[in-house]
Write a structure and sequence with these properties.
- The complex is a heterodimer of chains A (322) and B (318).
- Chain A has 322 residues and is mainly α.
- Chain A is built from 13 helices and no strands.
- The mean pLDDT of chain A is 85.
- The longest helix of chain B is centred in the middle third of the chain and has 37 residues.
- In chain B, α3 crosses α13, α4 packs across α13 and α11 runs parallel beside α12.
- The chains are: A mainly alpha (322), B mainly alpha (318).
- Chains A and B meet through α1, α2, α6, α7 and α10 of A and α6, α7, α11 and α13 of B.
C-alpha cells in the first residue's frame, strides 16, 4: 500500500517536473524574442508582408500564453509542430534521428555494464593489489578524459592513420560495406559506441568496485563462504546482487548525462542522432525542433530518474518507506 | 556572559594549562596533513598549479601574440610543428602553442567564475533549507530536484545561441566578452543544485550537534552560529564539490565552444577545437593541443577533488 502511494507520488512529481520543464523551455525560447524575427535579423531583405505571413503560418501572431497552451495541447497528442528548415513534422524527425541515438547509446550502456561488473569485481576481490591500483588509476584517468576528445583521438587513429573505420555518419554515402545495409550500419557504429562505452565504463567501474569492496566485507558473504559455496558463486551470485543496486540507481543519472552531452558526442562523428539534430536546429534557429527535441530529452531524463527511484525501492528490501 | 566566566573560573588552573597544551589539531590542520600525503591529491595540485602558472605567465612564455597571423606567409597555415612554431600553426595560421597558452586564463576564469556563482547560490539556498527546515526546506528541495533533472547543457546551448541572435544591432553588442560572460553566468545558475543539496545535508547534520547547542547556550547569535560554527565545519565537503565543479564548468565551456556557440572574440580551447576540427586530417596538432589542454585541466581538478575528499572525509570511500 505504502509502495503504491510512493509510486503514485513519484509519478505525479514527474508530471509536475515535466510541465515545469515545458514552461522553462517555451518561455526561454520565446523570451529572447520572436523566433521568426530573430531568423530574419540574420537574413536581411525579406519583405514585412512575408514575415507577417510566416508568423501567421507558424501561429506566432497570438500572445505567448495562448501559444504556450496550444503548444502544450499539441504535445499531449505528440504533435510537435512543423520544422521551419526541413518543413517536416518535428515528431517524425525526432523519431528517425532519435532512433540513431538509441542505436549507439543502448549498446554503449550494456557493454559498459558488463565490463564494469567484471573489472570492478576483479579489482574489489584483490583490493590494494597492483591490479586494483591500475584499475583505479585507469578509471580516474578515464573519468577526466572528455568524451569528445576521445572521439577525436579514435578518428585520428582508426579512420585517418589506419583507415579501417569510418569517421562520420551512420551509413556510407556511396555503396554499403559488403553490399549489406546491416553490416554497413554496424561498421559505422563501432567508433561512436567505443567512445561512449569508454566514457560510461570509467564511472561504472569505480562505483562497482567500491560497492563490491563494501559488500564483500559483510557477514552473509563470510557465511556463504563458510558453508562451502564456491568463491565464484559467492561473488557473482550473492555479492553481486547487493553490490549492483547502487549501480542500477546510477544508471538513471547516466542516461541523463549521456543524453545531455549527446549534442557534443554526436557532433564529433557527425552522427545523425537527436543531439546532432538539436545542434543544427539551434544553429539555424529552427525553434519547433529546439523546443521539441529539448522537451523529448528532458522527458527521457525524467522518466529515467523516476524509474530508477521506483526500481530502487522495489529491489532493495532494506529501504523502508515512511 | 557572567555565567560562562564563572564556569571557567571553577576549572582548576593547572588543568586548563594541560588542556591547552594538548589542544587537538583542527579539522583544517588534520585535513591538510592528510592531503600532503595523498598521492592523487598532490598530483592534482601540481597539474592545477601548472595551469595557473601558464595562465599568469602566458604573455611572457607564449612565442607569439594570439592574434598574430603572420605565419600565413612563412610556414603557412596548417604547418606541422617546427622550432619556431613548437605545436605547428592552425587553419588560420595562428601559432597553436600561443593560442593554447592564452586559452588557460579563459578556462580558469570560466571555472572560477561559474563555480563562485554556483557555490554562492548553493550555499545560501541549501543553508536556508537545512537550518530553517519545515516548509521552506520542502519547497527548496523540490526546486533543487527540478534543477537536478533538467538537461542543463541542452538548455544552455539554446540560450547562448538565442541571446547572440538577440543582441544583433543593439547597444549590447559592444559589451566585450558578452557571450563568454553569458556562458559563465548560465553554467553558474544551472550548477547550484548539487551544492545546495550537500550544504543542506551538512547543515542538517551539524545544527543539532552538541557544540552548536553549547554555542547557543552561551548566547551566540544566529549569525554567529551560522557563519562561525556551522559553515566552517560544512566547508570541507563543499570545497570538494567546488573543485569537481570547476573542472566540470571548464569542460562545459569547452563543449559549448566546440559546438560553435562560444565567444568568437575570446581565445578558448573549445573555440580552437571548433575552428580546427574540420582540418583534423591535415593538421591534427591544431586539434590535439587544445584537447590535451582540456584533458589535463579537467584531470587536475578531478584529482585535486579526489585528494581533498580523502583528506577531509577519511572514513568515506576507500
Amino acid at each position: 500500500m505504502r509502495l503504491t502511494i510512493y509510486i503514485v507520488r513519484r509519478l505525479l512529481f514527474a508530471l509536475l517536473l515535466m510541465s515545469g520543464v515545458s514552461l522553462i523551455i517555451f518561455f526561454l525560447v520565446n523570451a529572447v524574442g520572436d523566433p521568426i524575427e530573430l531568423m530574419m535579423a540574420e537574413t536581411p531583405g525579406v519583405s514585412a508582408q512575408t514575415i507577417e505571413r510566416m508568423k501567421a503560418y507558424y501561429g506566432l501572431d497570438q500572445d505567448a500564453l495562448t501559444r504556450y497552451l496550444i503548444w502544450l495541447g499539441k504535445l499531449l497528442h505528440l504533435d510537435f509542430g512543423t520544422s521551419i528548415v526541413y518543413n517536416q513534422p518535428v515528431g517524425s524527425l525526432i523519431a528517425t534521428w532519435g532512433w540513431q541515438t538509441f542505436k549507439i547509446q543502448v549498446p554503449a550502456i550494456l557493454i559498459a555494464l558488463v565490463i564494469a561488473i567484471f573489472v570492478g569485481t576483479t579489482a574489489a576481490r584483490r583490493q590494494h593489489s597492483r591490479t586494483d591500483f591500475s584499475v583505479m588509476s585507469g578509471a580516474l584517468l578515464g573519468q577526466s578524459l572528455p568524451a569528445f576528445f576521445l572521439g577525436i583521438l579514435l578518428i585520428l587513429i582508426f579512420s585517418y592513420t589506419f583507415d579501417i573505420l569510418p569517421s562520420y555518419g551512420a551509413y556510407s554515402t556511396r555503396g554499403y560495406l559488403w553490399g549489406s545495409v546491416i553490416a554497413d550500419g554496424l561498421w559505422h557504429m563501432v567508433l561512436p559506441v567505443a567512445m561512449l562505452t569508454f566514457f560510461n565504463t570509467a564511472t561504472l567501474t569505480l562505483l562497482m568496485r567500491s560497492n563490491m569492496v563494501d559488500v564483500l566485507k559483510l557477514d552473509f558473504i563470510s557465511a556463504a563462504r563458510a558453508s562451502g559455496i564456491p568463491e565464484r558463486r559467492v561473488v557473482y551470485r550473492h555479492a553481486l546482487r547487493v553490490a549492483f543496486i547502487p549501480v542500477l540507481t546510477y544508471l538513471g543519472l547516466l542516461v541523463g548525462l549521456m543524453l545531455g552531452t549527446a549534442p557534443v558526442t554526436e557532433s564529433v562523428f557527425t552522427w545523425p542522432g537527436l543531439g546532432y539534430l538539436y545542434v543544427t536546429a539551434i544553429h539555424q534557429l529552427d525553434y519547433p525542433i529546439i523546443m521539441g527535441a529539448s522537451m523529448v530529452i528532458a522527458t527521457m531524463l525524467i522518466v529515467a530518474t523516476t524509474l530508477t527511484d521506483i526500481a530502487y525501492v522495489l529491489i532493495d528490501p532494506r529501504i523502508r518507506l515512511e | 556572559m557572567s555565567d560562562s566566566r564563572s564556569v571557567n573560573a571553577a576549572v582548576p588552573f593547572a588543568e586548563t594549562a594541560v588542556i591547552a597544551r594538548h589542544k587537538p589539531k583542527g579539522i583544517w590542520r588534520q585535513g591538510c596533513e592528510r592531503f600532503l600525503h595523498s598521492r592523487t591529491g598532490m598530483l592534482g595540485l601540481a597539474l592545477v598549479a601548472l595551469i595557473v602558472a601558464v595562465a599568469i605567465l602566458g604573455p611572457f612564455i607564449a612565442p607569439f601574440d594570439p592574434q598574430d597571423q603572420s605565419a600565413m606567409l612563412d610556414p603557412g597555415a596548417k604547418a606541422p610543428p617546427s622550432w619556431i612554431h613548437p605545436l605547428g600553426t592552425d587553419r588560420m595560421a595562428y601559432d597553436v602553442a600561443s593560442r593554447v597558452i592564452y586559452g588557460a586564463p579563459t578556462a580558469l576564469i570560466v571555472g572560477l567564475g561559474a563555480m563562485s556563482i554556483a557555490a554562492f547560490l548553493g550555499i545560501v539556498v541549501g543553508g536556508i533549507a537545512g537550518y530553517r527546515g519545515g516548509l521552506a526546506d520542502e519547497i527548496i528541495m523540490r526546486a533543487t530536484d527540478f534543477f537536478l533533472v533538467i538537461p542543463v547543457f541542452v538548455v544552455i546551448l539554446a540560450v547562448v545561441r538565442l541571446l547572440s541572435g538577440m543582441v544583433v544591432n543593439t547597444p549590447l553588442e559592444s559589451i566585450p566578452y558578452l557571450n563568454l560572460g553569458t556562458i559563465i553566468v548560465l553554467i553558474g545558475i544551472f550548477g547550484w543544485a548539487p551544492i545546495a543539496r550537500m550544504t543542506r545535508a551538512e547543515f542538517l547534520r551539524l545544527k543539532n550537534q552538541e557544540f552548536i547547542e553549547a554555542a547557543r547556550c552561551i548566547g551566540a547569535t544566529t549569525g554567529d552560529i551560522l557563519f562561525r560554527h556551522i559553515l566552517p565545519n560544512a566547508l570541507p565537503s563543499l570545497i570538494v564539490m567546488v573543485a569537481l565543479g570547476i573542472g566540470g564548468a571548464i569542460l562545459s565551456e569547452a563543449m559549448i565552444g566546440f559546438l560553435g556557440f562560444g565567444d568568437p572574440k575570446a581565445v578558448s580551447w573549445g573555440q580552437l577545437l571548433f575552428f580546427n576540427y574540420e582540418s583534423l586530417k591535415v593538421a591534427p596538432w591544431a586539434s590535439l593541443a587544445p584537447g590535451a589542454a582540456i584533458f589535463v585541466t579537467v584531470l587536475g581538478f578531478n584529482l585535486l577533488a579526489d585528494g581533498l575528499s580523502d583528506a577531509f572525509n577519511p572514513r568515506s570511500g576507500k
